[in-house]
Amino acid sequence: MSDFGFYFRLGWEHIMSIDALDHLLFVWVLAAIYLLRDWRQVLVLVTAFTIGHSITLALSTLNVVEVPSSWTEFLIPCTIVFTAASNLFRRHFEPRYLRINYVLALFFGLIHGLGFANTLRFMLVKGQSLGWGLFGFNVGLEAGQVVVVSVVLLLSWLLVQRLRVPRREWVLFVSAAVFSLALKMALERLP
C-alpha cells in the first residue's frame, strides 16, 4: 500500500505543482466553458483525459511508443493553445455543441501522457509492476484534477451565476489568459 501512496502522491503533484503549470492550464481551459450544474460532464471529460494520459504513459514507459521529449514538450502547450482557441470562438454552450470536447480530451490526454513517461520509468523499482504504479499515479492525477475542476466550477458559479458576469465573458477571460501563457510556452519549447 505504501507503493500506492508514493505513486498517488506523484500523480497528485503532477497536476498540483507549480512545475505542472501546463497541466493546470489545460484543465482550467478545458473546464472554463462549463458551469457548476455541468459537474458530471466535466468529471467525464477529465476522466477521458486521464484515460488518454494513462494509455500513452504506459506505452511510453514500456518503450512501445517513443516520441522525442523535445516534441512532447512542444506539443503539450500546443494542445492548450488549441483548446483555448476553440473556447474563444465558441458561441454555444449547450451539451450538443460540447460533445467534441470528450474526443479532444482523450486525444490530448494521449499527448500529455508522453510527457511523464521518462520520469515514471526511472522511478519504478526494479521488478515492480507498472500496473500498480500507473494505477496509483492515475488516481492521484484524477484527484488533483477534480480539485482543480472544482475550483474552476465554483469560480464560474460565483461569477456567472451569482455576480451575473456574462458566461461568454468569463470563458473569453479564462481562455485568452490561458491561450497567451500556453502560446508563450509553445514558442519557448519549439524543437
UniProtKB/TrEMBL annotation:
Protein's UniProt keywords contain Membrane: yes
Keywords: Membrane, Transmembrane, Transmembrane helix
Keyword flag Ion transport: no
One Pfam family, short name: HupE_UreJ_2
Residue ranges of the TM segments: 20-36, 43-65, 71-89, 101-124, 130-158, 170-187
Name this polypeptide is given: HupE/UreJ family protein
Native organism: Flaviaesturariibacter aridisoli
